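User: Um, what's this?
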Amino acid sequence: MAKGGKSKTKPVPSSNWKKLLPTIAPKKDAKKRKTDDFEISPNYKGFNKKQKLEKLKAAKLQQAVKKEEESTTKTTTKTIPDKDELWFADDIDEDTLKTVYATKTTSKEQRLKKKAIVAEMEAASGEAAKVGKYVAIDCEMVGVGPGGIDSALARVSIVNYNGAVVLDCYVKPQEKVTDYRTKVSGIEPHHIESEE
């Protein structure tokens, strides 16, 4: 006996354990998956719930767009003529010809593409969500003064190079708004009258 009154022998596994062991042991010929073979799972604890949902929505929309594109290319295929066949094609590049002679997309396909782009922009996180070197800005104006002739800023939106929203807010003009220009700007009185 060893010190302390305990023996150093290992316990012997039971017969049930001996039967179970071969079924749960890893197989020798099974290949280990490399870390490059998969992306980070949306279940990864570093993402919050909103980001997970946005990434899943973006992925579903992209799959829908791909299916629509595949179905349209299978049904209608248009050949792009060579530059030699066209009398006016001396000063036209190949990309322009592809754009002109490409199959036309339906309004449903255009909506799906737009939704996929917006979902991808909203799902941007990490490096893609940083401001970066390039930004785009859009301003919406409302009419102020007599007849709404003068313009005043009512909304400003800024996105980065990847399309991630950096800033999107309403601005309350100092003058009284006389024309909201809702058809063009999309701005209604409740947008700029709130104190947010």
Observations:
- The beta strands are 135-144, 150-160, 165-170, 177-179.
